Amino acid sequence: MTKFSLKPSLGALLLAAWLGLGLSSSQALAKNSSLDSGQAVFEVLASEIALQRGEAGLAYTTYLELARQLDDPRLAQRAMEIAITAGAPDLALQAAQTWDGLAGPKQTKPKEVLVTLLILNQRWSDAVKPAISLLNQQTPAQRDNTLLQIQSLLAKATDESEALRAFYEIVSTLKPEPKDPGLLYTYAMSAEKSGRIDVMEKTLREILRKNPNDINSLNALGYSLADRNQKLPEAFKLISKAHQLSPRDGFILDSLGWVNFRMGNNALALEQLQQAFNLKPEADIAAHIGEVLWVMNRPAEAEDMWRKGQQLDANNPTLKETLKRLKPDWSVAEKALKGSWDGRFAVKVTGLTEGKNQGGTGGFTLTQDALTDVLEIRNPVGGSIAKITIKPGEAILERDGQLTTAIDADTLIQNTLGLPLPARGLSDWLRGQTRPGSNASVERNSKGQVSKITQDGWTLNYNWNNAERLEKLTMNRSSNIGSIDIRLVFDIPNE
User: Fold this and answer.
1) What are the tens digits of pLDDT across the range 227-239?
2) Is residue 40, in this structure, part of any structural domain at all?
3) Of 118, 351, 386, 391, which has the fewest beta carbons less than 10 angstroms from its beta carbon?
4) pLDDT tens digits, residue range 321-350?
5) Range 465-492 average pLDDT
């Protein structure tokens, strides 16, 4: 699960306010759906009783299975509502996909919900096509409202770069472009993340032409120029004006310090950047401070600041790029594209399946070659349970001679094996690295080894042997609907 989790009140408020979603009742389902058998009606009523008793996992599973058996979109909608109320947006997404598929292409409400849940589950790239399809079915007023809602969810993005690129893909297809200043600013930022610097500059200058005192546009254009080491006098002028208009803004102070660093004013830059960090303790500001200290030949202080940055967000793009240039042993090494791990696992699951408590043990082998990971899961006596091949944008699960495909490996395993087991980016975690695509915090021991990673709702604790090889890894993930605990043990630690 991602770090953003829908609590009951938040889930109801968000979806009800934006989508006008009304929670179904068992009575309404019985009267209006295609339930035409006593057994089906009994299962619906039993699910509602289970829900009242706190067995949300059982109710969710029953409704979703019935929806698929009866081709009834309202049953899938009910399963989704249960997952939302339980604070499990990943399970809600699974149900929303079923609801949208059963409802048909002309119905916009399921698609609105699907786009929302894809975004809440941090699957911004997957949300692009359904979002464009939805916008093309809407009136201009509805379209603007949808874009504003998507814009508001950008603040929840764990990977800002991916989210902005997705936003650019969505908005760039629309004719005419949005006129709302806030949407235009976000569009400019998304253009930069998509490599369209020309679109960014044009859009920001257009905003400033209409409003010369737009603080965000002044700062964004100035910082972009400074970061690319271009037109530094203009960059300084733009940022200085923004700073005069908002002298206590930490992000603007960061920009001011950065442009002074680019202009060779290191001492002044360090002072301004430290002030910025005190106001806004962000990973990218920590990266800037560390680089200035590094250039000033103060490496110990630089490394200390970078550690603080990693604890705030180890996947921050600015921090990662800085470490790659100046401290490559701390960064994700590009050479680490081949590896192999063989070990044993133990899993304990509480409240996520029909049984209150489940678990199991077995063995696994994970191999990585370039951009492909292959995960083989075995039972305790060595028999094969499943083989999962993971590639960018595709996952293939082989089980009992049958192949099942999906975009995301974790979702694939959830849907086929019934458990929320992590597979996507597992090779990164086994190396003691954060998996790309979402923010994370990292803690290190006295030897500089990673001792703890928190990412995507998982908490990982590392044990390394004297040869600095991974010996044991424990993983925990909890939600309002249950929890999962995983222990990986390596008899012969390898990589």
Assistant:
1) 999 999 999 999 9
2) yes
3) 391
4) 999 899 877 765 444 467 888 989 988 888
5) 83
Shared-domain flag, residues 99 and 73: yes
Angle at 451 between CA 448 and CA 457, to 5 degrees: 135
Q: Where are the beta strands (DSSP E) in 370-447?
A: 372-378, 384-391, 394-399, 402-406, 440-444
Distance, CA of 136 to CA of 138 (rounded, Å) = 6
Could you give the dihedral angle defined by the CA atoms of residues 217, 220, 226 and 227, in that order, rounded to the nearest 10 degrees? -160
Q: From 394, 341, 378, 346, select the one nearest 386 (Cα to Cα).
A: 378
> Do both 222 and 259 map to the same domain?
yes
Each residue of 446-478: pLDDT tens digit?
A: 777 889 999 888 999 999 887 778 889 999 988
CA distance 166 to 172: 10
Q: Which domain holds residue 55?
A: 8-170
The conformation of residue 135, written as its DSSP 8-state character, comes to: H
Name the amino acid, one letter, at 286: A
Compute CA 349 distance to the chain's CA centroid, rounded to the nearest angstrom.
23
Integer Cα distance of 291 and 256 in angstroms:
15
Hey, how many other C-beta atoms are within 10 angstroms of the C-beta on 482? 20
* Sheet with 338-350: strands ordered across: 402-406, 394-399, 384-391, 372-378, 357-369, 338-350, 482-489, 470-479, 458-464, 450-455, 440-444
**Overall domain count for the chain:** 3
**Per-residue tokens: 84:** 């939302």
Judgement on whether residues 293 and 203 belong to the same structural domain of the protein: yes
Structure-token match 């953003």, residue found: 4
β-partners of residue 357 are 350
